[in-house]
Design goal:
14 strands, alpha/beta, Inosine-uridine Nucleoside N-ribohydrolase, Chain A, about 375 residues, two-stranded antiparallel sheet, 2 domains
Length: about 375
């Protein structure tokens, strides 16, 4: 019996003591019987009086309609240029098939130059959602078509390029602790910071981009000004490096076309409504669509292979041991050259040296045994 329950019992004992004692005095000729009554009734009071019983512990509760497992998942908004190359689509599928890990609050798209206008990026993201039977179940919104410099030059917070996606990011991060995983240019993130600086205090950004400490890289070069704007803000920022041709970046986490043709056929859930692919053809699961994407891509290696850059940014959230991280004073890119700022109090995290074998093993395991994320709309 714990201390609280013993105190309650003692209080009941004292209260009933007066009652029992009066009975024993009243029956002076039966002192022995009175004593027996006293002991018996005292024990009976302790066991029967509601206030003396040990109260059962209240079960730990979570908000109504939310399971304990749901509450423990990583809440993510995925910001993507989905129509560029093929790694965005594979990252999306990996994320959507990891329903025991991720809680996807929404997907926003932005336009980079190889993927065409914003509608093309929206359409490609929608295809992956449809193959996952999650179209209209996960919010999908259009972000910026243009770059930060041209949008912010005459910025109207009530009417601007990318408003639908950016406003969604701002409002969704007010509700709960949500991470933004950005795998394209950083325009949507910079616009969110410009419209609402308090955005920096309620989330963090995990960005797939940059060859740091060397110049160049597609996402970075699509909107360098937005990247510098984010680096100069206070928002927690993690850079998942690309590093073309280096073993230390996500460029090393590559799969061959032969491997994809062998391992991906038929993988993923069966789509209730098949899609027409970006390059034509009809597909009823993501595995078959993956093969088509690898058939219609340029290769620069022998044997032909392509890195799954964007997927790695999600994999390290799932298991941080699959990469190495270090903190550095936030640099800035000027005239295509990184300028180190060792006196800068603002630090960022740099990810590098990824465990290719474990990341890809988990990717294929996820494709073979998908657990779909929960609908959020």
């Amino acid at each position: 019996m714990n201390k609280l329950n013993w105190t309650q019992s003692l209080r009941c004992f004292r209260s009933f003591h007066f009652f029992v004692l009066s009975l024993t005095i009243f029956n002076q000729n039966l002192l022995f019987m009175g004593l027996v009554r006293y002991v018996f009734l005292t024990l009976l009071s302790i066991s029967l009086f509601p206030s003396c019983k040990e109260k059962p512990k209240e079960p730990v509760s979570v908000p109504e309609g939310v399971s304990k497992n749901e509450a423990q998942k990583i809440k993510v908004i995925f910001d993507t240029d989905a129509n560029n190359e093929l790694d965005d689509q594979h990252a999306m599928a990996y994320m959507l098939f990891n329903g025991d890990v991720f809680d996807i609050r929404g997907i926003t798209v932005n336009a980079t130059y190889n993927g065409g206008g914003i509608q093309g990026h929206y359409d490609e993201a929608e295809r992956v959602l449809q193959l996952s039977n999650l179209k209209d179940s996960i919010p999908l919104l259009k972000g910026a078509n243009g770059n930060f410099d041209e949008i912010s030059d005459s910025f109207d917070p009530y009417n601007y390029d990318g408003q639908e996606g950016v406003d969604f990011i701002l409002e969704e991060t007010k509700k709960d602790s949500t991470i933004i995983v950005a795998v394209g240019k950083l325009t949507n993130i910079a616009l969110a910071l410009k419209k609402d600086p308090s955005f920096a205090e309620r989330t963090k950004i995990v960005w797939l981009g940059s060859n740091y400490p060397e110049p160049g890289e597609y996402n970075q070069d699509n909107d360098t000004i937005s990247m510098n704007y984010v680096l100069n803000s206070k928002i927690p920022f993690e850079m998942v490096t690309v590093r073309y041709g280096k073993p230390s970046g996500t460029d090393a986490v590559a799969v061959t076309q032969t491997e994809v043709n062998s391992r991906m056929p038929g993988l993923g859930p069966k789509a209730k409504t098949p899609i027409t692919g970006r390059h034509g053809g009809t597909f009823g699961n993501f595995g078959d669509y993956s093969i088509s994407l690898f058939e219609h891509i340029h290769y620069h290696t022998d044997p032909p292979s392509r890195p799954l850059f964007d997927m790695v940014a999600l994999a390290i959230l799932k298991d941080s041991s699959w990469g190495e991280q270090k903190s550095i004073p936030a640099p800035v890119l000027i005239n295509n050259k990184w300028i180190e700022r060792p006196q800068n109090d603002r630090e960022i995290t740099v990810w590098e040296n990824f465990d290719k074998e474990k990341v890809l093993a988990d990717f294929y395991e996820t494709m073979e045994n998908p657990t779909l994320v929960s609908a959020t709309q």
